[in-house]
Structures are given as structure tokens and as C-alpha cells.
Design brief:
- By secondary structure, this protein is an alpha/beta fold.
- It folds into three domains: about 110 residues, no CATH class; about 55 residues, Alpha-Beta Plaits (2-Layer Sandwich), CATH 3.30.70; about 180 residues, Vaccinia Virus protein VP39 (Rossmann fold, 3-Layer(aba) Sandwich).
- It has 17 helices and eleven strands.
- A seven-stranded mixed beta sheet has the order 7-6-5-8-9-11-10, sandwiched between helices.
């Protein structure tokens, strides 16, 4: 495919997203209809689509549109202007590229600031948290997220993994902030096919998550409950450094569908429980709560999140976070820990949720609280450690 044809394909995918499809589905549907497209074409089209979604507000403004009115064509036009790409090298490059610009489309528009990539009501919440640093945080969120691997130190060392992956065509480098973390420099799409991945020597896991889990004071024995287990990545990380009994629960068990195979590869032993069964369990030394949240810390990985979120959905999420925190009280043993985590940058889901919990449950102490954002880790993430008195 020519560069112009790739942009035309991105326009078609973006129109499907605007019509209601998720980015993943829209790209998959387009790919099925375009058997002629090679792997490099598909990767480039995906990059164009996600570049638009991460910079949607500015792309729309540079095309002279409101975000709510912008078509895929307008968004690609705005992206080209944002990145300084010559528009005439794409538009009008028929037969496979988009048609030439109309007179209205050819009009130039001033470049807005990066704040326009975020809905106003969310900006208000973020300004409370970041103040004058907000633009720097949003600038980091406008770029492609790095890919990180976690080394399973029960089975191997970072040095061996770096060597093994290099032979498989995947270049990684050690991150100085955490011994288990490797940043992928190239070959990310090959990772799941490598022998290291198939043998459970590595897991794909974001740096901020790895750093947060590494700070949890995990006991070497006892009982740990991962209450909102999701795909089980945090439990796998805990199992790599603890012999404690691991119990996993999730409101939607299908999220753990592939965990059994990954756990077998990694050497992790675990059990699962439904919520009602937990009432008849002995209490836990650690209750891990990676609660449902706005996902505002993951905007560069899932950029549609910031446009789907509303004040009403945020309020509903906060209510669910409160319920989960309160549920954990009965599950934590005396002197036990509740680990509260979100992938959010919003104070209402983080510090305010924790302060509300402590007001309702003064029998708990706050031991530790830490926030990560793209300036000091990769994604936005929040960690709090609470202990029963």
C-alpha cells in the first residue's frame, strides 16, 4: 500500500469508530476486508488511527471541526497538519488515497494547545491534581505508550531474557528503576511467539504496574486474595516472589480465561473463589483491590476512554470503589493489609476514596500512598497500603 492509501484506510477505520465500534474491532473488521494489506500496512494504519485518537481534540480543531462533528477524513487532515506532513502528499493521491481537499478543507486553522485533547470537565479535575504540570502530563499521554515486560525471576534472570529475545528478533533493554522490568525497543509484535514467553519467563506488564506491585509488602507465607483479579497479571507478579497461598476472584470470571495456561507456564499455583464463597473463608493477610476505575492513567493505550467517560459514569465508578473497599474490611485479617490500586489520575478515585475509607473505618491505618504518571513511570497508576489495627 502507498502512504496515501494507508491514510485512506485509517479514515475508513476512524469512521467506523465514530459510528460506535471500538478501535480494536474497527481495525479487525477492516483487516478482514483487506486481505491485500501486509503486516507493515496494518501496523501503519493502526498507528495512524491511534495517533488520531490520542490527539483527537487538536486534530479536529486543525481541520476546522468540533470533536463531536469531525469525520475520519477531517481527523486525518488535522493529524497531518499537527505532525507537519505535507497534506498534498496524501489528499488527491488517487486512485487509492483520499480525494483532493475542498476549498473549505484547504483553509488553515491555528494550532490549539494540548488541553483541547481532553474534555473540559475532566480538565477541571486534572488541574486540581497537577496544576501547572498538567500540560506536561497530557503531552506525555499524547505519545505512543512503551511496551514493558516483567521477568519471572523464579525461572530466569533479566540477562538471560535479553539474550534469548535478541535471538528471536526482539530487542529489549533493562529499566534502571526496577530489576524485573525490560523495555521493548523493537519487535513487540513478536513477543507472544517467542520461546521466552511460551515458557513463562516473561509477561507483558506496564512499568507503573510493576513498580506498584514491587512496593507491596507481600508476605512470604500466609494467604493473599486478589479480589479484582482481571487477567491475573498482578497475582503472577506476586507469585514470582512469594510462596503465600493465592486466591483469585473477579466479578467477571471470563477475564481470567487465559490465566490457567499463563500460570502453568510461570509456575504459579492459585485457586479461584466466587464472592459468596469468600464469606466462609478464613481472613486474608493481604487483600489486593485493583478496582474498576476511569482508566484515565491509560489514555495513551486506550485513548477513547477520555471521550467515553461522563460525570455520571465517574460517579458510578466511585460508588463501586467505595463498595469494594468496604467489602474488603471483612476479608482482611487482624493486622492484615488492604492494597488499593487504580489506573487513574483523578483524585476522587484515589486520595479522596482512601480518605473516605479511613473516615468510615478508623480501625485502619494508612501505611503508604504513591502515584505514578507518564513522567516517572509509563501509565498513570495509584497505590495505597492500608493496615488493620
Amino acid at each position: 500500500m502507498t502512504p496515501a492509501a494507508r491514510y485512506q484506510a485509517a479514515i475508513e477505520v476512524l469512521d467506523a469508530i465514530i459510528a460506535g465500534q471500538t478501535p480494536e474491532l474497527a481495525l479487525r473488521v477492516w483487516g478482514r476486508s483487506a486481505r491485500f494489506a501486509g503486516s507493515k500496512d496494518r501496523a501503519a494504519i493502526s498507528d495512524h488511527v491511534y495517533d488520531v485518537l490520542r490527539n483527537r481534540g487538536r486534530a479536529a480543531a486543525l481541520a476546522g471541526c468540533l470533536v463531536t462533528q469531525a469525520t475520519g477524513r477531517a481527523l486525518i487532515l488535522g493529524l497531518l497538519r499537527l505532525h507537519g506532513v505535507a497534506v498534498e502528499d496524501v489528499f488527491g493521491q488517487l486512485p487509492y488515497g483520499p480525494s483532493a481537499l475542498s476549498a473549505d478543507e484547504a483553509m488553515e486553522h491555528p494550532t490549539p494547545d494540548i488541553l483541547s485533547d481532553t474534555p473540559d470537565w475532566l480538565l477541571t479535575l486534572l488541574e486540581v491534581e497537577f496544576g501547572p504540570d498538567l500540560e506536561a502530563v497530557l503531552a506525555a499521554m499524547s505519545t505512543r505508550a512503551p511496551v514493558y515486560l516483567r521477568v519471572n525471576t523464579r525461572k530466569t534472570t533479566p540477562e538471560h531474557v535479553i539474550s534469548d529475545l535478541a535471538q528471536a528478533g526482539v530487542r529489549v533493554i533493562a529499566d534502571p528503576r526496577l530489576a524485573t522490568a525490560l523495555e521493548v525497543q523493537n519487535g513487540a509484535r513478536k513477543i507472544t511467539a517467542t520461546a521466552a514467553y511460551q515458557a513463562g519467563l516473561i509477561e507483558v506488564q506496564d512499568l507503573s504496574v510493576q513498580m506498584a506491585v514491587a512496593e507491596i509488602p507481600v508476605p512470604q507465607t500466609g494467604r493473599i486474595l486478589d479480589y479484582c483479579a482481571g487477567s491475573g497479571g498482578k497475582s503472577l507478579a506476586i507469585a514470582a516472589r512469594s510462596d503465600a497461598e493465592l486466591i483469585l476472584h473477579d466479578k467477571f470470571p471470563k477475564r481470567m480465561a487465559d490465566l490457567a495456561l499463563r500460570a502453568e507456564r510461570a509456575g504459579m499455583i492459585y485457586q479461584t473463589r466466587e464472592d459468596v464463597q469468600l464469606d466462609h473463608e478464613a481472613q486474608f493477610d493481604v487483600v489486593l483491590l485493583d478496582v474498576p476505575c476511569s482508566g484515565s492513567g491509560t489514555w495513551r493505550r486506550d485513548p477513547m476512554v477520555r471521550w467515553r467517560m461522563t460525570p455520571e459514569t465517574l460517579a458510578a465508578l466511585h460508588s463501586e470503589q467505595v463498595q469494594i473497599l468496604d467489602r474488603a474490611v471483612a476479608l482482611a485479617a487482624p493486622r492484615g493489609l488492604i492494597i488499593y490500586m487504580t489506573c487513574s489520575l483523578l483524585r476522587v478515585e484515589n486520595e479522596e476514596a482512601v480518605h473516605g475509607f479511613l473516615a468510615r473505618h478508623p480501625q485502619f491505618d494508612l501505611l503508604q500512598s504513591r502515584r505514578f504518571d507518564p513522567r516517572n513511570a509509563s501509565d498513570g497508576f495509584f497505590l495505597t497500603v492500608l493496615q488493620a489495627k
